[in-house]
Amino acid sequence: MEKLAQIINKIRANKGNAEPVALTPQTRLREDLAFDSFDLAELTVHVEDAFGKDIFEDGVVDTIADVCKRLGI
Amino acid sequence: MNILLTGASRGVGLVICKTLLEQGHAVYAVSRTHSDEIAALQKQYPEKLFFKSADLGDPAAAKAAIFAEDFVSNKIALDAFVNNAAQAYDDIVTNLNLEPLRAMYEVNVFAPMLLTKYAIRNMLLHGKSGGIVHISSISAHTGYKGLAMYASSKGAIEAFSKNTAREWGGRGVRSNVVVPGFMETAMSATLSQEQKDRIYKRTSLKKATDISSVAETVAFLVSDRAASITGQAIHVDNGTI
Ligand SMILES: NC(=O)c1ccc[n+]([C@@H]2O[C@H](COP(=O)([O-])OP(=O)(O)OC[C@H]3O[C@@H](n4cnc5c(N)ncnc54)[C@H](OP(=O)(O)O)[C@@H]3O)[C@@H](O)[C@H]2O)c1
């Protein structure tokens, strides 16, 4: 979870959102974090590098809880 | 730069491979055959040329072999992908047969699209800009008897390149196409001298396209010298007009 938060905050920082966010299982990637499809692609590659799993391979992922479920964390 | 290149064993790919090595780049070369020429280049550039045998006729298996720990792993930051490997299915349209058509599309269209996906993902992971170059063919722009199926696969890849350029430009990824005219390689070896002469007559320079001119154009397009060029199809075809 900590690693995931690091990845997400880094992507936000690259977009100019310096303030790190606290993630909850309910946090929605698109609505709450304002991730567009390019940010989600970046998230996918960093998560895959860190956890060895492509989170978007089988269908839509909406919340942090969905991501954790896919990763088994 | 680290460059992934398909179809390196012979023909145009081999010349592109040599040209990129001469310019100091590291080349991750792919084809089914580990040719003598590639083996000789590996002796000459042991630290710069890496080879993997893969059959692009099975895109998923080829992707798994290429983006693997022992080849283009996540530790390697790719700067460019050159899609050169291709096969030709030549026949007149009324003889069209689905099986060879599908087999050609696996190699010429589906495999390069899948490899583009993972090349861009590698560039994203490393936060780097990068270049993609697809080798098309003049047959996609000027019709020739017997080349409708082959040319259609090149038309598909040209449209894919233009849209990739538009989609990923914001992240610094450039995508271009080199459009060669007819060259003297294994692919065109079945043509008779008469057929070749007819093709050359349609060019301004009245001869076969120089392979090294194609290779130099590829090397230019992947380099920073082409930093503002994307979404283009550059014709290297002796002026086929
Ligand atoms: N020759 C021409 O007149 C001409 C004109 C316009 C455009 N082009 C384009 O130029 C590019 C190079 O063609 P070329 O003339 O150099 O042809 P070539 O001499 O037949 O070489 C084709 C290359 O692609 C590789 N390849 C073919 N099928 C493959 C597969 N299933 N899996 C992996 N690698 C495969 C071959 O390696 P292996 O056999 O070892 O796998 C070889 O290295 C192609 O995109 C072609 O469409 C050629």
Give your account of this protein's structure.
The complex is a heterodimer of chains A (73) and B (241). Helix content of chain A is 49%, strand content 0%. With 73 residues, chain A is mainly α. In chain A, α1 runs antiparallel to α2 (37-51). Chain B is α/β, with parallel strands linked by helices and 241 residues long. Chain B has helices at residues 11-22, 36-44, 59-66, 98-125, 148-168, 193-201, 211-222, and strands at residues 2-6, 26-31, 49-53, 80-83, 130-135, 173-180, 233-236. In chain B, strands 3-2-1-4-5-6-7 form a 7-stranded parallel β-sheet, with helices on both faces. The radius of gyration of chain B is 17 Å and the shape is globular. The interface between A and B is small, with 9 and 8 residues. Bound molecules: NADP nicotinamide-adenine-dinucleotide phosphate (NAP).
Name some characteristics of this structure.
heterodimer; A: 73 residues; mainly alpha; 3 helices; B: 241 residues; alpha/beta; 16% strand; binds NADP nicotinamide-adenine-dinucleotide phosphate
